[in-house]
Amino acid sequence: MSEKIADTIETTAAAQVDFAIRQLNSLSILPSVGTRFLTALMKLELTPAELTEIIESEPALTAMILSHMHQQGLSFDNDNPSIRRALDKIPLRTLRGTFLSMKVDLNFGQASDRPLSREELGLHSLSVACCAKQIAEIVTPKIDLDSAYLAGLLHNIGNLALYQAMPKSFDQIVGQAKSQGVYICDIQQKYLGLDYTIIGKRLAEKWGFPEHITLAIWLHRCDVGRFIQSMPEVRIAQVVQLADCLARHAGLGQSASFDSPGSTEKIADSLGVTTSQLEQISEGLTEQVKQKFRPLGLDSQNAAKNYCDTIAETASQLAGDNTKLSQENLRMQAASSKLDFTDAFLSNINAAAFPLDIAKNFAVAFQKSYQTGPVCLYLTPKAGLQSLEAVVAESPSQTKFVYLTRSVDLSPIPQAIAKEFTILDAADQIDWLFEQLDADFDLDKTKLLPLTANGKTIAVMAFELNYPVDNEKIEENCKTACAIGGIVLEMASGSSEKGRFAEQFAMALGKPRDVQPAVAAKTTRADEPQTRADSSLTALAEMAAGAAHELNNPLSVVSGRAQLLAESETDPEKKQILKQIHENAGELSGIIDELMSFAEPQQPRPIQTDLKQMLNEAVQLASRKTNTEHVNVQFEIPQSCKDVFVDSAQIASAMANIISNSLESYTDKIGPIKIAATPDDKFVELQISDLGCGMDQQTLAKAIQPFFSAKPAGRKRGMGLTYAARLIESNKGSLNIQSEPGIGTTVTITLPVGQ
What we know:
The chain is of the alpha+beta class. It has 26 helices and 14 strands.
């Protein structure tokens, strides 16, 4: 056979061996070891120290621990590996799962014609580990004892891998090495194209062993003394090499090499170990290895059967644990769904929400969270009233408010759910409701639930359930949600009722009297009610729109006629009068344009808008409006502020009007003005504050009314704040004002954040 053909065969064989070895995810263990280890894990009987003793007696278990550390991204302190420290970082349940994925050599204990047993290989590895640790105690400079032990225990994992993955080839190679009395690496190189040291190195790299352990596995049969000065980390390979020689001289186990162990003097000299020290180590080595080997239970009878029994017991225990976990998971899922519902329901409610708006939020959140069909939720009416309010959610995006009526002799609440939480089938319960609803409910699938608070039913919900579940389960899942809804609705109803009483009281106080006592002006403090740009703006807008349309046409006629007459008039005095009429008509036209802009502002075109940039534009615009060259504005805009979702031009114009008002409150029109932002999940709150003259209560009450100005007559039209409030409202924001004479004014604006 030519040298070229031989090289090709060798390369092909090496590739095949490498492929086979790299399929290994772990080394196989002996069944008695598996029984001992698994029993300890399942019953948690052993202390970490005792568990460490089992693992450190078996190369496969040790390799499994180091590999698991690598896979989980865990590391050793100071890069010194230790099984004891590893167990402090790995949960035992995780360790159990990893162990159960390992293979077990169930042929152990049975008659075998294999030239080398798995037990002998393991015994040799343990002997080298014990010897390496003792050598590490006496060498100079010192070597970490745990590292030396693990390197010795794992030095032969290449042969263990071949024993498991390629048993026939391994046995043939061992047989030939034994018959010829040679070093097994030579035979492996000849037939496989690589030897157990290289295979061990590649496995160590794959499983993420510490680098100095990998070097010891790879180089423990090499003469590393020549380059130890430049690579001191390979000294551990020398320690393992010396330990391997001592273990082979002692005849403890079998390494799979059958050549002479050779002299230890040269290696011992390079490590600074004396002959007497080596003799002392060798004398106690046999007894020490027996003590380390004893926990593996290799002398137990029927090891394979015992392991199978242990696996069956483990499977039963795991099944029980899995059942408990499944039940706990179901409980946690139920709790999570309740939290999801609560978050979806409460996140869309504010303190000023009306009961019917809250009912809508509840119906939509309930439909989403519990995957129901159509939902109808109606509020229980006051005593004696036949009409009641309801919300219908055919889908989360399709809702509507409806008003319903009932006969006086029909109770709005079925008797069974009037005072306690329970569920009813809707059929034949409240026919008067479904007769009036323009929604397609399947009554055979529709259920009724009460929303209760303080022992009374606040609202009743009908919902179509399109999946099979018994009523008891529905009660269990929905009880918390309905209780939350009932409490929130009761609080909102109480607040709404108090608001109506306050309105009636204010109307009574506001009626004209024959004698009206003088009322002293009262300043507005921060803790008193604030002026709001609320629904009154809508009424003002409707009035302004009507007035503007009515005035525009006759005013155009007056302006046009005055201009024509002025052009043909020769009398200078009359010409001047006509010119004044034309100019004043133009002024009125400007006022009407402002009215029209207020009444019918351009439909907002919201986009994602950078808040700081928009504020800078507003400041520049205010500067031009007030003819102020330098404006002292202090920004407090946190980095966490999101973009706002508004028509940037409209909001910049609105804020410019507010900033202009703040500048006008100072005699020098400079400032300071503070603009602070507070981010929220759905809104950004802006506060524009000044230290100007401030406003008293009467002025504050009229601040956003059209054409109102605290300045002397003729100075301003009084549309700045009104227009600002209108634009902010149309962009789904809000505007509040607080002010105190001599202290200053704070305008609070909320704007929706980006999508």
